[in-house]
Amino acid sequence: MARAKKKAGEINSSSMADISFLLLIFFLVTTTMDVDTGMKRTLPPWIDPTEQQNDVDVNERNVLKVNVARNGSIMVGTEVYRANDLNRSAGHSRLSREVYNFLVDADKSNKKDVEIDGAMYPISEGLVSLKADNESKYSVYLQVQDELTYAFNLYRDDISRLVYGVGYNELDDIQQANIRKAVPMKISEAEPNDQTKK
């Protein structure tokens, strides 16, 4: 008499879903994600076009105009800069040196006495107006913003040494807040224009 073949036992897969779910949770909890912090910029508040605007009077002498063209050239005042003028060598790029000199030199921007910790110090009233074409390269625009910020930070460092005798990064939080209040980051970013319509 022939023997019946014994059937192979089936694998119990009822707990596979639970195991998969636990592995998924484990990898989600233990995996680190790189987060791009982006740029720290505060956008101006929205202005209702129907409301009457109160224009702020700014002395034209205290404004340094920076325009970024679509071809990558940068106009600073009446001078034309190229993208390689944004590369820093010896602590400055050509653009950051121009902005820094604009802030420091009394012949280029007016100075106003500002109180810092009970004493008066001459602080530049200079403002940098940044404008770009709609089709300008984003990388060039960001480099320009970075160089403008760098120049303002160097100026803050100078004022910090004048007031407290040490660099800005060596100050405590209250002293840094005093310097930031006295030397605000005056970078006005105008709405981009479209040169194709001209």
Number of helices: 4
Let me know the largest β-sheet.
5 strands, mixed
Query: Multimeric state of these chains?
Result: single chain
Number of strands: 7
Q: SS-based structural class?
A: alpha/beta
> Helicity range of the residues?
25-40%
Instruction: Round the Cα radius of gyration to an integer and report it.
Output: 29 Å
Mean pLDDT: 80
In what range is the share of β-strand residues? 15-25%
Brief account:
The chain has helices at residues 16-30, 94-104, 138-164, 173-182; strands spanning 63-68, 74-76, 79-81, 111-116, 119-124, 127-132, 187-189.
Characterise the protein shown here:
Helix 2 packs parallel to helix 3 (about 140-165) and helix 3 crosses helix 4. The protein contains 4 helices and 7 strands. Strands 3-2-1-6-7 form a 5-stranded mixed β-sheet, covered by helices on one side. Strands 4-5 form a two-stranded antiparallel sheet. The radius of gyration is 29 Å and the shape is elongated. A hairpin with a 2-residue loop joins strand 4 (about 110-115) and strand 5. It is about 30% helix and about 15% strand. With about 200 residues, it is of the alpha/beta class.
